[in-house]
């Protein structure tokens, strides 16, 4: 079956299944134009071709589904997982074809046209400008029928990739499809206009579908309404300063870049809506000013948040800024960060020996997965290829690479929206994020665990958190029965020059608090260079409560001499307590975190606990204990005063008020 009208003659080439990490025939490096990564547009094209060739053997006979191998289906089931494989790889193909202005020596147009025709073969149809027919029943009984788009269902997610892919390739694919195929695909897509999304970035999937359907003349009024509705629904989640929360609450993560900024700005750009593009473009540019600081010198994006198996999708907002003209970054920095991210993963085993993206970070790793993750989920990484839409002679491709922020100088940067503090060191190229404002829901069905990728005190480009079910790294809490209290109801208290603070309710797990006991922890971090002073004021705790502070989880033994090292030293109220039991992270099969221990006194003003922490890959770093002096105790005005003296004599003072307020001087 072919979905393309006979007038388009496909040119097919045999598909290879390379291993991108080891066997892909890349062009030679160009260290003149790309001194940092060696990669150019040609490398991006070769990587896209390799990824698309690798999935081809797994397509069903009619090409409608891509049931990729794996023993971990998503909670949506194998049919939906197969649709996900089609949709996400089709989006990658669309970037490749549109970027080549329709050139298609690999026969991608024919391949995905077949899938469009087969997946919708049993649907009713809807003609442009008419109401949808009552006889349209998506999701038939055929072996390759696409599942229906329903409320809060995964096909709604995938419909956005299909619609965007069709819009980008319209002159070469949609406009050349058989009339019947166009009508059936339209009938399938229109359900996305009224399907109720999960109240999160999902609100933007009808925006992507509506933008295409309005342009194609299919239910244009309903399509435009869906676009307006989706954009309106995310508006309350914009916290200012370029950041959105992913839904109500304080879930800040990469969905800012690869969804919450991507879909509004791209819709405005494709629709040539200057008013919307100005609005969303300005937000994007503000976001990118922070976002550029999330990449280490080795190309690694910061390891925080959910859906991390999407890997180099983190490059999408960088390209989007260049595409729309709304970016504070120069072209050479944009390409350096994006190419660095792509190469970082492909050089570190992100693909299997069959060239498929694995479910994991570098290689397979369940700790970064969610129940919705299926074998084709990693191909959301296709969004990272957005830059191919920029022509080959665009300055983002022709400018000489410039170093990223983490390579230029030591930086501490407050990020007001999420209430984060970024800390990077040029000597080792590491980026650390101190989290005093982002949290997420606990895992489904288990309210007694913090989310490892949202609730930790800190994250970095070279370490990952311990997974669910393991004692948490980078955490402070009360210990009872082998369990540590949760960091819940996080309240940001501000972030500024070299500091960030928050307050949370320490919920004890497996124990009822004593009568009248309501434990609050006010936390502050002061940073300079690679050094951190972590300060916690515990109030409301009964006397004799054990507390524990943990540090960065790093490979044990170190994987290389230049690998990161984790240090944790007590300053006040704490003592050394060995290390947490070893566990796997996304970066190491066996990692350990140092730990400190203390005990509450129950005094009315609360108890202060201070420690030094450091994550560094600098082999020549001076001893941590020699870099900081600290004093802590009650002040005459009823506050707690902490005085920190850095190695060069600079002094910072922090006051903790009785109500939990923090002031840094």
Keywords for this entry:
DUF2264_N; 20% strand; UCP014753; DUF2264 domain-containing protein; five-stranded antiparallel β-sheet; 23 strands; alpha+beta
Describe this structure in words.
The chain has 665 residues and is an alpha+beta fold. It contains 14 helices and 23 strands. It has helices spanning 41-55, 78-99, 108-119, 154-168, 179-189, 205-216, 220-234, 255-260, 262-271, 274-291, 316-324, 331-346, 395-398, 405-408, and strands at 238-240, 243-244, 411-415, 420-425, 430-435, 458-460, 476-480, 483-484, 486-496, 499-507, 520-528, 531-539, 546-550, 554-555, 565-572, 575-579, 591-592, 594-599, 607-616, 628-634, 640-646, 651-656, 662-664. The strands form six sheets. A six-stranded antiparallel sheet has the order 9-10-11-12-19-15, with no helix packed on it. Strands 8-7-13-18-16 form a five-stranded antiparallel sheet, with no helix packed on it. The chain has a four-stranded antiparallel sheet with strand order 3-4-5-6. The termini are far apart. Residues 5-21 and 133-138 have low confidence and may be disordered.
Q: Which whole number gives the mean pLDDT?
A: 92
Runs in which pLDDT lies below 50 for 5 or more consecutive residues are 5-21, 133-138
* Helix content class: 25-40%
| Distance from first to last alpha carbon | 71 Å
Q: Order of strands across the biggest sheet? A: 9-10-11-12-19-15
Largest sheet: 6 strands, antiparallel
Strand content: 15-25%
Structural class: alpha+beta
Which outline best applies?
A: globular
* Helical stretch tally: 14
How many β-strands, per DSSP? Answer: 23
Radius of gyration: 26 Å
